[in-house]
Amino acid sequence: MSHGHDHSHGSHGHDPHGHDHHEPGFLGKYVFSVDHKVIGIQYAVTSLVFLLVGFTMMLIMRWQLARPDEAVPIIGGLLARLGITNAGTRSLLPEGYNMLGAMHGTIMVFLGVVPLAVGGFGNYVMPLQIGAKDMAFPKLNMMSYWVFLAGGIVMLASFGANGGAAQSGWTSYPPLSNIALSGQTWWLVGMVLLITSSLLGSVNFITTIFHLRAKGMSLWKMPFFVWGQLVTAFLLLLAFPPLEAAGVLQLMDRVADTSFFMPAGLYVGDKPVTSWTGGGNPLLWQHLFWFLAHPEVYVLILPAMGIVGEVLANNTRKPLWGYKTLVYSIIFLGFMSFIVWAHHMYMTGMGTAISTFFQATTMIISIPSVIILTCFIISLYGARIRYNTPMLFAISFLPMFAIGGLTGLPLGLAAADIHLHDTYYVIGHFHYVVAPGTIFALFAGIYHWFPKATGRRMNEFLGKLHFWPSLIGMNMIFGPMFFVGIAGVQRRLWTQVDYNLGQLTQSWVVFSSVGAAVLGLAQIPFIINFFSTALAGRKVTQNPWDATTLEWAAPSPPPHGNFLTEPVVYCGPYEYSVPGKKSDFCPQCQPMEA
Amino acid sequence: MSLLAQTTWWLPPDFSEHGWQIDRLINWLHYFMAVLFVGWGVFLAYCMTRFTWKRVSMAHYTPVKAKASKVIEVAVIIFEVILLVVFSMPVLAKYKNEPPTPADNPFEVHVVAQQFAWNIHYPGPDGIFGKRDIKFVKDATNPIGLDRDGDPNAKDDIVSNNQMPLPAGRHIIVKVTSKDVIHSFNIPMLRVKQDAVPGIEIPVWFKVKEGTTSDAIREQMARTVVVPAAGESTTAYELWCRNNLTFDEVKGADGQVVLKKGAEPGKDHLEALRAAGVKELRVGPRDPVEIHCTQLCGLTHYKMRGQVLIQSQADFDKWYEEKAKGTGDFIED
C-alpha cells in the first residue's frame, strides 16, 4: 500500500481525521479524494441521481403509453426545447420516445445500477469487509470515478446533439445505429468512457481482494458480499473489452466510413447508401454486444445477491445457509454467463445446432440461480427474524428475483421464444430481475450501511413508507407486462393502440403507468429520509445491527485508513447465535472464546 | 371496468398448424414456474411468520439438514431437460431444419422490409421471382427494385405494400430480408417471427390451418362495445372502435340506418348513435391478422404494421390471377 498512515492513534478513535499529518484540503478530502470511502460515496450519490434521471425518463414514456399523444404534464414545455416533445402540443414525439427509450436503458444499467452496486457499495464496503486500509490502487480508483462521471456527462449532453440523443435502443443495433444522427456518436464516446472506468475498477477490485485481506481473512472467511464483488470484477474485466472493441468499430463505421457492420446494397429512405462500401455484417455487432451484455446481467445481479446475503444473515441472526454452495454457485454463474449470449439472438436466423447449444447452456445457468434462491430462503428457517427496513427490502428481493428468473425460462427455450421474443414479456422479465430485484437489494444496502457511512441510522417509519408503496408500485408496473407480452405485443412502440392485440391489452398499459406514478411517489420518503438522516439523523454506535463482519469493527464513519487497530480475523463471517455464547453474535475480529 | 373485461389475459388465438406446439410449451413452462414459485412462496411465508423476533428466543446455529433443496434442484434439472429435449428442440428443428419439400407443393413469397413498410413480393403465375437490384428502386412504384424491363421472369411478379394475401391450408415459405436496417417479421396469430437482416435472406415456413379465413377470424374476435352516454368518458369507446368494423347494420329507433354494415365506427358517429338510442355495437378488427415489426427500426417503428389476408386457395388464386394481369402494378396499402 502506497500511503503509509499511522494508525496507532487509538485514543483519538472518534476523530475521523486523527493524526493525519498531510491533512488534505477540502478539494482533496471530498472531491479529488483517493479514499475508497469518499469515492464510494461519490459513486453512490452520482448513481442515485442518475437512477432518478432514468426513472423520470421512464415516467415520461409511461405517460405517453397510457395517454398517447397527449401533452406531457409539467415538463412538456421544457422537453420541447430538446426536441423530445412537440413544441405546439407538448406531446411526446416518436423520436423523443426512442431517445428516452435508448437513454433510459443506458442510464439505468451503465450509470445507475452498476455504478451504485459496484462503484458505490463495492468501493465503500468491500475494503472494510476484508480489513484493508484502502483499495490497492487509490489513484486508479479516483480515476475510475472521474472517467465514469465524464461518461455520464457525455451521455446527458448528447440530448443537446444535432437531432438529439441516441435513438437506436440501448442495444444500438447497426445498421440503424450507423445511419442514425450524431447523438449515436456521443453515445459511443460515452460508452467507451464508461467501459474504461469499469475496467479500471475491476482490476483494482481483484487486486485488492487478493492482496489486501487482513490477517486471518482466508478466502473462505470472506463475507458473501466480497465474493459477489470478486466474481463481478472478473465479469467486468473479461466481458467489457469485446464491447469496448465493438464500440470503437461502430464509432469508426460512423466517423471514418468503415464497414464493419454495414452490408452492401442498402437503400435507406429515398436513396441508395453510398457512404459505406459494404461487406460488413450487422450480426457481428450483436454477437459482440451480447457477449458483454449477458455477463452484464450478472454484473447487475451478483452484487445485489451479495448485499441480500449480508442483510439476511444479520437479520435472521443465523449463519447463511449453504455459504460455500452459494459461493460455488456464483462462480459457476459467472463462468456460464460467458456462454449463453446468443440466446438473445434466436430470431436472427441462427441454425438449430448453435441454438441447441445456447438453449442447453441457458437451462444450465438457471440451476445455480435456483440453488442461490433456495439457499437464501432456507436461511430463514430456524431464524430469529428482525423486520427492519433493510430486511424488508432484502426479503422482498427473493420473490421478486424469483419471478424475474423464472420468466427467463420461456425466453431461453427457442421454441417458446418464437412467440415471446422482443415482446413486453422480455421487458417484464428483466425488469423483475433488475428493478424490484437488484434495486431493492441496493435499497437494502443503503439502509443497512447508512449508519456505517454517516454514523446515523435512517428513520424506520419513513423506511417502511418507502418500502411498501415501492413494492406495490413495482409489481403494478411490471406484472401486467407479462400479459401484454404473452398477448403478442412487441416492445419499443411509441403507442400500441394501432394494433389489434395492442388495443386488447391497452388497459394493462394504463395500469402499469399508474403503478409508475405510485413508485415515483414512494421515492419521496426515501429522499427525505436520506438527506434528513445524513444531516440530523439519530446517532448510533459503530455496530448498531450487532453484525459480525469487519466493517462494523471500524468507527462510524471510518476515518481515513479505516481501522483504529489492524484487525485480525478469527472466525467466519456469519457466526450468529453460536450455542453457549452470551451474545448472539461473534464478530470476525474477536476470538471465539470471548 | 369495461376495459378490463375486454382485456386479453393469455395467448392470442393461433391459426397456424405448428403454433399449438409453441403454445403448449409456453403453457407447461408457466405451470412449472407457478409450482416452483408457489412452493418457494409458501415456505417463505411460513418462515416469515413462524421465525419472528418475538416467537423465537434464539436462532438455530446448526444448519438445517435440508434435503428439500437437493430434491428441488434435481427436479428442476429433470424438468428442464424434458422441456428442452422433448418439447423445445423438436419443435424448433421442425421450424428451422425441415422446410417443406417440393412434394408438399409449397408457395413461396419474399418479404423485403424497409423503414417503415413490408414489401411483399409474389412470383406471379410463372412461379419464378424476377431479379431485384437496388439500382432499379423507385420509392413510389418499385420499392424493391424489381427488374421489370430486363428480366422476363419479373413481368408477372406482384409486389404489395403491407397487404399480404395468403392461401389457407398450403405450405408457405417466406424468405425474409431487408433493404435498410434490421426489422423483425412477426405474425403473432400465426406464431411466426423472423428477423429481417439486410444482406441476408432468411427463410421461415408455416401453414395456415385449412378452412381459416380472415372473415372467420374477424367473427371470432368480435366484441361488444358500449356506446358512452353524453357526458361519459369516450376514451374506452374510441380505443375499442379503432381499426374495427361494425358487423351489422345499425339502425336507430326510427328505422334510419346510422352505421352501415362494415363501417368504421368512431368519434364521428357518436352523436348519431346516441341520438338514435343505440346502446352498444358489435365490432370486429378490420385486419384481424397483423404483421408486427418486433425489432426497433427507427422513427415510426410503432406503425410498421402489415396485414395478412387469409383466404381459401380458390379465392386466393382468383386474386392472384387478377393481379398478375396488371403487369407492373404496385398494390398500395
* Contiguous helical run count of chain B: 7
According to CATH, what is the topology of chain A?
Answer: Cytochrome C Oxidase, Chain A
**Helical residue percent band of chain A:** 55-70%
Query: Oligomeric status of the shown chains?
Result: heterodimer
User: Please, what is the average pLDDT of chain A?
Assistant: 93
Kindly identify the CATH topology of the largest domain in chain B. Immunoglobulin-like
Mind sketching the topology for me?
The complex is a heterodimer of chains A (594) and B (333).
Chain A: H1 26-31, H2 36-66, H3 76-81, H4 94-129, H5 138-157, H6 183-211, H7 224-255, E1 267-268, E2 271-272, H8 282-316, H9 323-336, H10 352-378, H11 389-406, H12 408-412, H13 414-420, H14 424-454, E3 456-457, H15 460-486, H16 500-536, E4 538-539
Antiparallel strand pairs in A: 1-2, 3-4
Helix pairs in contact in A: 2-4, 2-5, 2-16, 4-5, 4-6, 4-7, 4-8, 4-14, 5-6, 6-7, 7-8, 7-9, 8-11, 8-14, 9-10, 10-11, 11-14, 11-15, 14-15, 15-16
Chain B: H1 2-5, H2 19-50, H3 67-97, E1 107-114, E2 117-122, E3 158-161, E4 163-167, E5 171-178, E6 183-187, E7 192-196, E8 202-207, H4 214-220, E9 223-226, H5 235-241, E10 244-246, E11 250-251, E12 257-259, H6 270-275, E13 280-285, E14 289-293, E15 306-311, H7 313-325, E16 330-331
Parallel strand pairs in B: 1-5, 3-16, 4-15
Antiparallel strand pairs in B: 1-2, 2-3, 5-8, 6-7, 6-14, 9-13, 10-13, 11-12, 14-15
